Amino acid sequence: MTRFLLRRLLLALPALLGLLVLTFVLLRVVPSDPSTALAGENATPEQIAAIRKAYGFDQPLWRQFVVYVGQVLTGDFGNSIFTEQPVLGDITRRLPATVELVLAALLFATGVGIPLGVLAAVYYNSSFDHAVRIVTVGGLAIAPFWFAIILQLVFAMDLDWLPLRGRIPVGMPPPPTVTGLYLIDSLVAGRFDLLTTAARHMLLPAFTLSLGSLASITRFTRAGMLETLQKDFVAYEKAAGYPERRVIWVYVLRNSLVATTTQIGLLFGALIAGAVAVETIYDWPGIGSYAVQAILTSDYKAILAVTLVVGVIYAAVNIAVDIVHALLDPRVAEQL
Amino acid sequence: MPSRRSLLINSTALAATMVSRISWAHGQTRTHELNWSEGPPNILDPHVIFDGPMVFYMLNTYDTLYRYEGNPPKIVPWLASSYTASPDGLTWTFKLRQGAKFQDGSEIVAEDVVYSFQRLVALNRGPAAVFKPILDSVSVGEDRYTVQFKLKVPYAPFLSTVPIVAIVNPRVIAPNVKNDDWGAAWLSANSAGSGPYRLDPATYRPMEAIDFHRFKEHFAGWGHNANPVELVRNRYILETTTRVSALMRGDIDAIDHYLPVDQLDRIGRTAGLRVTNDETMRVFVITMHNGRAPFDNVHYRRALSYAFNYKGFIDGILKKGAVRNPGPIPQNLWGSPADLKGYEFNLEKAKAELEKARAAGAPVDREIEIHTQNQQAQTTQAAQVFQSDLRKIGIKLKVVPNLWPPLAAATTKPETSPDMWLHWVSAYFVDPENWIGQMYDSAFHGTWKGSAWYKNAEVDGLLREARRELDAERRKGLYEKASRIVVDEAADIWIYNTIQMRGLSKRIQGFAFSPIGGGSEFRLLSLT
What we know:
The structure holds 2 protein chains of 2 kinds. By secondary structure, chain A is mainly α. Chain A is about 75% helix and about 0% strand. In chain A, α8 packs across α9 (about 190-230) and α11 runs parallel beside α12 (about 285-295). Chain A is globular. By secondary structure, chain B is α+β, with helices and mostly antiparallel strands. Chain B has 2 domains: about 40-255 and about 505-525, D-Maltodextrin-Binding Protein, domain 2 (3-Layer(aba) Sandwich); about 280-500, Dipeptide-binding Protein, domain 3 (Roll). In chain B, α8 packs parallel to α9 (about 260-270). Chain B is globular, with a radius of gyration of 26 Å.
């Protein structure tokens, strides 16, 4: 297992470097000179030239890249071109909000998606199965930004049941930071009022974000279950008189979850990246809305850092998924 | 151990409790706390950037020697009580008000003003662009309340540009200077001012949140406002629909003024809210690249000027939320000729001008491009209206979505400047120099304002003379003459002067609009 982990980690490094090269080149080949943004709105060509020189933007692109990678390796993502604040500080402050939102969305999608997929497989081709198919196809097809606005208009504006935006109301102090996840930090602080408030603020964004994942997990579980249900061991267990509920929810489900687990892992990374639209609409102060601002202002250092952080999370989750595979299916572990 | 059924019932009950708390306290009603939502400056150092958001920030946290008030804006003494200019326009002397204090309690004296201007020029960022070419020296005058500026050349708009420069507290900055940076790294997230509100740096999250607390010892006093706001929370909400919805729910009390018409309708229909309506000095322009064929042909530019449906755009799309502006200077500012007609929408005249251009050998059949700003829906709408009408006279227009930073970078060189692009020219300072002076004097080529790459020796001469001339009437005449020439030559397509429509809670009292700052001046406001 240790060798396997090391091999996976070593494979992740060139992938991350490739990601960095690609993002750096793509950001810098477009005609957007960061020195213009740095110099300010009314700057003269002379002022812009002075900035270009001072920040090294007049150096060849490869040299700028080497310098940047050298900084990143020491944990320094540099300062934002736009706000001149350390990018690492911005990301550290905002990442917990995104992680909390993504975890909530994934928890919901998994908790609902797996049972739905199991039931759709058990009641294959029934009205229930068709209904689940329609809902899941809809879930995949609906644009999150549109759905988010509709949910806001209905549940926050018309019914006035849930908050519109943000993690907590304007002016309310957050719980003392332990993990940065408000739900957990509220619990740690014993602030159940804050826990309820934070949970209410999370309902709409987490539900919106979960929709695509819910559909995907449901479909994967259903397909896995249908395949496993055809296996001989299922017929044997049924013939041996095992309770059907136990056969379905324990033996068949466990043998069907390999593909679903892979999907959940991939979804975690995808949700971090996909949080961009949801965070923007719900004014959720995570790295998704940070990325939007960075793109709108051509803040290439912030964009690079967000890309790299998402890449690292993606790689880490993939490795974690492989480990879970091994735990679910001992044959996988033997091959390592 | 609870049964599954009881677990289900309990969790359903918890969910129902969370959802059914309709009496959610989202509409805050405290009369000393104001929740504002306006785009903050990206950096808090007033000597590093100067743009609309910085004016909003400066108005509340910093003071200047003179400042603008009212609409039309008048320049009034602020930290200075008076000024004199030498007859040759080279020496400007300002007398400071005595007893004015920074937020740390220290008195504002001439050395602080000298430090502020020296810091501005040394940092050499955007706001220094005006002063760097003209400022020879700034020094303490005959006493510690007198400041003297020596200019290299006479510069008539000097007084108008003084409100650009925030007076900062050197005693607060000095301990935070690193690597000779004049404290720029520190001041980008802190404040060193004397304004009526002080920044709470602990609450500052860039482009997200800033809290301001009232500075009770502000030199102007609080006699004008019996019930001032003690705490202002500025929370910037990026998404327009969410921002407007937050205002409608009462989560916030006021939002910015860059709102599309449909959102203004939503606000206008909501009880407890109002939409302000004030003419600004913010001109919407389609800049044309006069240095590139076929735009180097005056008939081609005139053809395009006749092909934009000004009335249709203003009345139809903006629902009359703007005033037609026929030239580069806002029509409510001196220097813009009162009888300036400009161009009207007339496709027959456009065709005639196009034929003249064709006859002169201009490549009128080439597909041309117009760049819009993605964040500003109006630029796309205007481009699409234009595209539709240009098609009728046989001109193919490609609409290219873009963003401000790449556009600002592209416009610094003639070869990368787009054929046409859409933008506004706001009131950075209130003088025709801010518009026509910096847009059509060829000395400003390489700045985004000068991206028309227009070059006319007579106009250069008129604008430079107006810059030197101290007699107000003569300056007015010079700008009017220059305006007529650039309009006749259709240097650009000037569409409208903006009407600011801002969404406000009716709780807010004392709102007073000025084109500089757009009314975001907290010291005037109170809440019911």
